[in-house]
Inverse folding.
């Protein structure tokens, strides 16, 4: 068995030393880096060989990579690094890493061409001035071979451990048994479809009702498929924290405790949740866990691979025991885990860690996209940007003197942009060239300032800089799948505006990410209609669709359509009394715990207030605006096996999906809304665009997302095959055939 490793990955493992240092360095974007490499290559003569593929062996190690360029006339191998700012600001430990890469490539070249010696050059290319700074050394093939073998020797013990682990993992996967005596209804069909999808390298959309055990039903067959498909990693991608917990629990069920776990499972969490010193900057001068990080990383890494699952708490304990940053240890462990459980953004965002590592290391990946109905809205957010003129004013009035001129110019162009705008909201078909040029100059000026004053990256200036970078990045991608709009507001005598770049069809970004994986499974209780999700997410034409049979009987859930009440905004006042009477009557007939969902906090509070006034004996508790995690947990803890009351919540909010209240903890729900998005100028523009693109403006903008929220909320009631409950769908539109077609097949409407 051989072990493949990229030159860059090898050197990052063996040659990184010193502090973790995330002080501002105005590094180029990926596009600027590529352009810089091309510029350097274009300056060389015709015999120059750019992007030279090289490969070599050391025992069981296969080391390969692509050297930036080789000049056969001068016998010089070049390693090109793009940067911006001061050359002297490049840290010494970075340069050490760059030299290591150049020397490994140097030996691979000498071996390939049978050279006795070669000149190695580090070429640092400033993307602003386009000036090259060159460091050059002459090396004999013998010395380079020694260096290469030394690096490989340092890595080999780890590689042998990894190969042994891979073998043990694959052997265990082949003999892995389903952890329960029987599959639930629909679960076996789902598992078989997932296995087939992985085996054929396809994409699967699986609409599977709540309660069939989707997490186990998808994770188990993919683990079984790993050896046969030679999968390197399995990515379990989820929208919310509860999804991560379910996946961790499933891994524990599949591989019970008490015996060594042959599967490395890693949970990735957001930086702000993992940081031990949030008030400190990420560098060795400010944070003790950044100081000497790379010196202590090998021991921490060795300790971490012996622990599985590496959930947030376990990884934190390993990190602190070795005095390294938990967040950046988790980033390192993403390279060595078999199953990575993470938020969508770790794979789909512009700068997604898992996608980047997968591409760099040519991993064979399989993805499981949990609660995939959330991916449309989350992806739209990832690829959108906005900038507010009020924020600019706040920043520019307190900005350092060197930024005064570019800020004033940007503000001037901003004022000119909305000068002629008549109404408060306007959509534009083209991006404003002059304003974007001013923004670009502003970004460069801030970057140059922060290069000279790294401590200046804080507060409002930092926030504006990152927002401006995001806006600029999105602007480069602007096409018919985006809306560009300006929202105007009067501030005394001044006009101020907010500029928005809204991605409304993320297919162009999500599709390629999915295509780069070996197989993909998108699953949720609500993935209807198929074409809606396929179109917006850019799924391939041969995507397999399945609607998994429900394990529940119609008798378990009494569904009542209350069509005599309208919850439209114009009828809201008139609906309050009838809804209160309905809740009170049901509570009297069958006391227990209920959830009541409304379209807004205002609506919720009006109904809750009237219920308290008329029926003070009915216990109630309500979702509040901006609840943190502990407050949300407190809300859920009201639902006990012995309690009786009504919990009020907003449809589509924290309690509309992803919560589990089985048995007597929840026996019914009232859904007093169709879940339609707010009628406003933005949504109306999206409707127009959806009509133009897909011929279904209203359905794509309002109806499908709305009904999906209703079904998700209703799914909280029946969680197990022994549960029984009642569901009230309150609105006259629930009686329409078009709406009823979107509801689960197993429901029997009354």
């Amino acid at each position: 068995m051989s072990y493949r490793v990229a030159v860059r990955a090898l050197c990052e493992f063996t040659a990184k030393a010193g502090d973790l240092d995330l002080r501002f360095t105005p590094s180029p974007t990926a596009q600027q880096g590529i352009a810089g490499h091309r510029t350097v290559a274009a300056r060389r003569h015709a015999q120059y060989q750019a992007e030279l593929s090289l490969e070599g062996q050391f025992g069981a190690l296969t080391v390969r990579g692509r050297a930036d360029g080789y000049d056969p006339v001068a016998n010089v191998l070049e390693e090109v690094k793009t940067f911006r700012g001061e050359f002297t600001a490049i840290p010494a430990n970075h340069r050490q890493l760059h030299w290591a890469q150049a020397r490994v490539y140097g030996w691979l070249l000498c071996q390939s061409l049978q050279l006795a010696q070669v000149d190695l050059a580090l070429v640092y290319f400033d993307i602003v001035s386009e000036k090259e700074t060159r460091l050059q050394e002459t090396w004999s093939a013998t010395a380079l071979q020694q260096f290469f073998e030394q690096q490989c020797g340092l890595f080999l013990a780890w590689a042998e451990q990894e190969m042994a682990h891979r073998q043990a993992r694959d052997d265990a996967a082949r003999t892995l048994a389903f952890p329960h005596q029987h599959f639930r209804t629909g679960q076996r069909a789902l598992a078989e479809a997932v296995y087939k999808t992985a085996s054929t390298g396809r994409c699967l959309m699986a609409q599977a009702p709540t309660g069939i055990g989707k997490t186990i039903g998808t994770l188990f067959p993919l683990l079984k498929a790993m050896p046969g498909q030679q999968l390197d990693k399995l990515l379990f991608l989820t929208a919310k924290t509860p999804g991560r917990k379910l996946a961790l629990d499933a891994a524990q069920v599949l591989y019970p405790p008490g015996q060594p776990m042959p599967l490395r499972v890693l949970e990735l969490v957001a930086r702000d949740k993992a940081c031990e010193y949030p008030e400190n900057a990420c560098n060795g001068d400010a944070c003790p866990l950044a100081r000497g990080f790379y010196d202590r990383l090998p021991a921490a890494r060795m300790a971490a691979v012996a622990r599985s699952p590496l959930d947030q708490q376990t990884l934190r304990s390993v990190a602190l025991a070795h005095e390294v940053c938990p967040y950046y240890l988790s980033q390192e462990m993403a390279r060595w885990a078999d199953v990575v459980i993470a938020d969508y953004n770790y794979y789909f965002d512009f700068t997604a860690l898992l996608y980047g590592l997968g591409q760099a290391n040519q991993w064979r990946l399989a993805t499981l996209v949990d609660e995939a109905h959330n991916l449309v809205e989350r992806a739209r957010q990832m690829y959108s940007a906005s900038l507010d003129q009020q924020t600019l004013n706040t920043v520019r009035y307190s900005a350092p003197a060197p930024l005064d001129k570019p800020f004033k110019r940007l503000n001037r162009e901003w004022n000119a942009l909305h000068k002629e705008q008549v109404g408060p909201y306007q959509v534009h078909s083209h991006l404003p060239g002059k304003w974007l040029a001013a923004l670009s100059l502003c970004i460069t000026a801030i970057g140059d300032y922060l290069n000279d004053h790294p401590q200046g990256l804080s507060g409002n200036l930092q926030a504006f800089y990152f927002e401006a970078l995001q806006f600029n990045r999105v602007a480069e991608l602007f096409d018919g799948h985006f809306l560009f709009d300006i929202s105007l507001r009067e501030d005394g005598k001044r006009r101020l505006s907010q500029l928005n770049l809204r991605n409304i069809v993320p297919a162009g970004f999500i599709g390629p990410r999915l295509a780069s994986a070996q197989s993909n499974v998108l699953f949720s209780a609500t993935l209807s209609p198929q074409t809606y999700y396929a179109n917006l997410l850019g799924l391939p034409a041969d995507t397999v669709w399945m609607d998994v049979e429900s394990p529940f009987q119609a008798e378990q859930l009494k569904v009542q359509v209350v069509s005599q009440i309208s919850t439209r905004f114009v009828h809201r006042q008139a609906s309050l009394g009838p809804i209160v009477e309905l809740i009170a009557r049901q509570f009297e007939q069958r006391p227990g715990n209920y959830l009541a969902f409304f379209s807004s906090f205002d609506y919720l509070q009006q109904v809750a207030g009237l219920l308290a006034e008329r029926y003070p004996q009915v216990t109630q508790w309500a979702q509040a605006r901006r609840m943190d995690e502990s407050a949300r947990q407190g809300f859920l803890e009201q639902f006990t096996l012995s309690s009786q009351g009504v919990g009020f919540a907003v449809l589509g909010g924290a309690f509309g999906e992803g919560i589990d209240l089985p048995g007597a903890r929840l026996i019914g729900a009232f859904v007093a809304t169709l879940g339609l998005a707010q009628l406003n100028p933005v949504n109306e523009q999206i409707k127009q665009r959806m009509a133009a693109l897909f011929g279904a403006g209203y359905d794509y903008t309002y109806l499908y997302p709305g009904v999906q929220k209703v079904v998700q909320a209703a799914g909280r009631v029946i969680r197990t095959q022994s549960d029984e409950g009642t569901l009230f769908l309150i609105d006259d539109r629930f009686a329409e055939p078009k709406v009823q077609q979107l509801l689960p097949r197993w429901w029997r409407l009354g």
User: Anything to note?
Assistant: The chain is about 45% helix and 20% strand.
